[in-house]
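User: Small ask, check this?
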Amino acid sequence: MSWSVGQVAGFAGVTVRTLHHYDAIGLLVPSERSHAGHRRYSDTDLDRLQQILFYRELGFPLEEVAALLDDPDADPRAHLRRQHELLTARIERLQMMAAAVEQAMEARTMGINLTPEEKFEVFGDFDPDQYQEEVQERWGDTDAYRQSRERTASYTKEDWQRIQNEADELTRRFVALMEAGEPADSEAAMDAAEDHRQGISRNHYDCGHEMHTCLGEMYVNDERFTRTIDHAKPGLAAYMRDAILANAVRHTA
């Protein structure tokens, strides 16, 4: 029994481009080809893909995943110990996120002092003030909130247009990476995540890597953020979260 690349993509919840990329770099080469030269995946290939996706979820770079899976002397117990360590670390990060999320904020939901006409011109049909009461209740006593209010108090329509253009360009950049099959822990995706973090620090409040990971988790844990972000491309919120996490690990390891 074998499956086509489209079937495998559906099984695994990945894109066909991702599978093509794995084939191109030798990480997951399908065992068979059809008479027409199309990729066909066996049960063994699916087992390997499952392991690849597990390691990816834990934040392993693709090069390290390949080394782990292809090393004939690799100790399965060492793999399990490493997996346990990474899972424990991820749980700790999530716990830190739960404690720190009250200090996190989404820049577009606060400190925007524009007329209704200017808001529509800059943000379209998104109202950046619609969650203002909730934002102030949750984060109004944080340094980050005060810092953002102070910085944005003097922003003009042109300032907000520039910030929105930067955000739109980053969204297009993330979408292009997804469509090219770039893993979220690739250098290109992590660089985009770092530019996202620096943009927040530059325009709103000092956003360290820990706070940035909190924002990333909020993108997937709050359906309002997920719905807004995924409007550009389904799965984008999770992709950004994973790239943000990988970037934080890269800078703190």
Observations:
- DSSP finds 13 helices and three strands in the chain.
- The CA atoms of residues 55 and 64 lie 9 Å apart.
